[in-house]
Write a sequence for this structure.
């Protein structure tokens, strides 16, 4: 794949920023949302919920793209995301630096 | 020979080839030696047998002496066999009763001793006489032609070739591996030497291709398999899924707006961004979006599908799979274009290490009005306008140690163009050009370069750059300049330039996958992967395989005018068989003696061309026999050599002919020696 040397047109690009909502007590700890999240937004919590399951929690708030896969995949309807706003992608700087 | 057949009357015609043959071989002695050989009715020599008087000599001798066969002792049959066979045919003798004895490449050119060379030439000609005595008259095989052409690659060369063929009234299938046609020319800002905008002259042609009733455009597609032969190629094409229905897409851009996945833009050479669902550039043909399934958040399981939700015409179909199409065409044009050498190859100039070191194509994108900076020249690291800019020519071209030994041809010109355009945009800026020689060999090119040097105040330095490195940027606003170390060989002085930006002219290499494609098409490539032409001077558009032609940078580095000219040439060549409607193939194919064939099947896997099938013998139901498809057979002779029962023979090279040649060539002494060894 082409590596990114500069992102001159970055100001023209916007991506959605999502907010993840988790109902921790509904979670049964299957881990699907953590495993399948394409941006690896989630991680396993340190402490279990009241039922004794290790529920997901947000690792980095700024990386959710509101794709909605977690909502689709959760068997317990315990997680979903909503659109906060469109933002300039935070990742671009990292993308440039990774290439060099 | 059966007694009923007439006695052979062979004519031997010996060519001096100017001095080429006559200096090393005593042509008179050779001629005298031919007189009196059994079956030889006539022997003569001429200074140039291929000239009109030479050909007339052959023609008249066949008529007057009633010759039954002809031996021409001259150059390699590769050069003039067809010429002489045509001459023989004008005298109503079957052209396959004409044999060329090669006494130039295989004798006079490789020997110095005239006496010995003459002796060898006598042997060569004599053995050819023995062969032609046993030759059979043959008739060329005539096969019908599919009146359609395939053009592989839709850059400027493929576009031009496709348009010319389509305008001539024939159907064209244009295959392009990317999602839009246009190739590298679509990326360029302005073109030398007239500085007209590349997009402005290319886009109308792209539109014409998209709308032409005779052109079937297959983008995002590649050739998988090629079968058949001139006039009847069967090509399997893989049409990769686009995930967007071209006919339904209106180009509204809603899908791109909502797409959350961002990756570097290939079209902008990594100087800008694009989404996972995108249109590569605004003027793309076909004007439809494409989903990059590698960049998408995920299709299995379907992660996001926001694009599908917002697409009002319902053009997005995320369940698409690749399609395989079988296409029959008569001729093929290869116009696969070029790439630049990967940056990893050029380490000492810091490309891939320092952000402000870019290649020629990247600089084109910075100059282009449709580029990521909208035509403003800004450097990648901090977006500032470079005040001092260094262009380095021959970076890896004409440099066998680091890159390629050949000249990439266009760099001298586009560097002059880049420096000029930079000067037009940044009036107080200073461009420097390091060059070895300036090669400006096109119409108006030298004037263009001279104007750059004399009128535009561009400093040309004759010499190579040894190293480019970044100075320590601590405490400096611009993060440290790029220090270019070089030498000016005209003054003999070392040069050090502290530059804001460096542009490297990287070598042109054949586009990725060319060797693979060449293998499928059974055409050859040179050491660098460029497609080899049939003859560097006289057949520069043909490949060695009949019916396959080439255009543009698939053959060698070329500028746009040369590419367009060659593409039109290739189109004209590719139309010839389509106009003829049928094609004559060489009848010197393999033939099966059905009584001798045991159906062992040894020949079948040996045939490179799939011309042999083992079938049930129609006259003996339990027996199998080999069957040769004359149209597919290339006459290589592999099967004839392998056949254990001698049932397979190649017409024109039958076993008895070859044994007669060997028998004539060997002396009695040789034969005794061979016998005792046995």
């Amino acid at each position: 794949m082409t590596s990114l040397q500069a992102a001159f047109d970055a100001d023209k690009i916007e991506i959605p920023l999502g907010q993840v909502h988790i109902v921790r007590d509904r979670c049964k700890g299957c881990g699907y949302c953590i495993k399948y999240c394409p941006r690896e937004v989630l991680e396993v919590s340190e402490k279990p919920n009241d039922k004794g399951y290790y529920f997901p929690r947000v690792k980095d708030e700024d990386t959710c793209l509101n794709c909605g896969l977690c909502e689709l995949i959760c068997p317990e309807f315990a997680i979903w995301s909503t659109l906060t706003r469109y933002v300039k992608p935070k990742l671009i700087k990292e993308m440039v630096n990774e290439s060099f | 020979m059966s007694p009923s057949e007439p006695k052979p009357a062979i004519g031997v015609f010996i060519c001096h080839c100017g001095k080429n043959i006559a200096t090393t071989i005593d042509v008179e002695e050779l001629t005298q030696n031919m007189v009196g050989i059994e079956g030889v009715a006539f022997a003569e020599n001429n200074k140039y047998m291929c000239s009109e008087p030479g050909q007339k000599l052959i023609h008249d001798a066949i008529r007057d002496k009633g010759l039954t066969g002809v031996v021409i002792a001259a150059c390699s049959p590769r050069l003039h066999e067809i010429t002489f066979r045509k001459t023989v045919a004008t005298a109503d003798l079957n052209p396959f009763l004409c044999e060329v004895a090669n006494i130039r490449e295989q004798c006079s050119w490789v020997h110095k001793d005239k006496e010995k060379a003459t002796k060898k030439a006598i042997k060569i000609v004599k053995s050819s006489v023995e062969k032609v005595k046993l030759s059979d008259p043959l008739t060329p095989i005539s096969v019908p032609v599919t009146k359609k052409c395939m053009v592989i690659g839709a850059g400027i060369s493929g576009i031009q070739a496709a348009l010319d063929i389509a305008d001539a009234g024939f159907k064209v299938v244009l295959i392009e591996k990317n999602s839009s046609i246009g190739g590298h020319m679509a990326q360029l800002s302005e073109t030398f030497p007239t500085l007209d905008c590349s997009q402005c002259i290319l886009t109308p042609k792209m539109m014409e291709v998209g709308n032409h009733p005779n052109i079937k455009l297959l983008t995002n597609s590649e050739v998988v398999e090629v079968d058949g032969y001139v006039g009847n190629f069967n090509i399997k094409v893989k049409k990769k899924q686009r995930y967007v229905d071209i006919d339904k897409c209106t180009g509204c851009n809603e899908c791109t707006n909502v797409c959350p996945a961002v990756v570097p833009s290939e079209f902008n050479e990594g100087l800008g961004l694009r989404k996972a669902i995108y249109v590569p550039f605004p003027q793309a043909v076909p004007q439809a979006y494409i989903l990059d399934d590698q960049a998408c958040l995920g299709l299995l399981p379907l992660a996001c599908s926001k694009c599908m939700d917002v697409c009002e015409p319902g053009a997005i179909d995320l369940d698409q799979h690749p399609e395989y199409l079988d296409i029959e065409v008569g001729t093929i044009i290869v116009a696969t274009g070029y790439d630049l050498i990967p940056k990893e190859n050029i380490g000492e100039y810091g490309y891939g290490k320092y952000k402000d070191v870019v290649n020629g194509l990247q600089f084109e994108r910075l100059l282009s009005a449709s580029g990521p900076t909208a035509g403003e020249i800004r450097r990648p690291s901090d977006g500032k306008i470079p005040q001092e800019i260094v262009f380095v020519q021959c970076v890896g071209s004409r440099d066998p140690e680091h890159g390629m030994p050949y000249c990439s041809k266009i760099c001298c010109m586009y560097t002059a163009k880049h420096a000029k355009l930079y000067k037009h945009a940044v009036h107080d800026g200073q461009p420097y050009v390091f060059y070895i020689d300036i090669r400006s060999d096109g119409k108006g090119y030298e004037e263009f370069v001279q104007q750059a040097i004399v009128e535009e105040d561009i400093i040309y330095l004759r010499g190579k750059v040894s190293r480019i490195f970044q100075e320590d940027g601590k405490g400096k606003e611009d993060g440290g300049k790029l220090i270019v170390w070089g030498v000016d060989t005209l003054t003999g002085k070392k040069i050090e330039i502290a530059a804001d930006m460096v542009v490297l002219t990287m070598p042109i290499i054949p586009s990725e996958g060319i060797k693979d494609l060449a293998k499928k098409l059974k055409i050859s490539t040179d050491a660098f992967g460029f497609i080899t032409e049939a003859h560097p001077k006289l057949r520069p558009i043909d490949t060695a395989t009949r019916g396959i032609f080439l255009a543009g940078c698939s053959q060698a580095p070329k500028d746009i005018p040369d590419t367009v000219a060659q593409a039109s040439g290739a189109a004209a060549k590719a139309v010839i068989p389509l106009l003829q409607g049928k094609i004559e193939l060489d009848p010197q194919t393999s033939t099966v003696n059905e009584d001798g064939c045991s159906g062992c099947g040894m020949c079948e896997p040996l045939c490179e061309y799939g011309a042999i099938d083992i079938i049930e013998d129609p006259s003996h139901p339990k027996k199998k026999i080999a069957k040769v498809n004359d149209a597919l057979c290339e006459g290589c002779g592999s099967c004839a050599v392998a056949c254990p029962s001698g049932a397979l023979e190649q017409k024109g090279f039958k076993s008895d002919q070859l044994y007669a040649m060997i028998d004539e060539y060997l002396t009695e002494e040789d034969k005794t020696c061979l016998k005792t060894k046995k």
DSSP finds 17 helices and 34 strands in chain B. The mean pLDDT of chain B is 93. The interface with chain A takes residues 257-266, 268-273, 275, 294, 297-298, 301-304, 306, 352-355, 358, 362, 371-373, 378, 380-381, 383 of chain B (CB under 8 Å). The domain at 10-133 of chain B is CATH 3.40.50 (Rossmann fold).
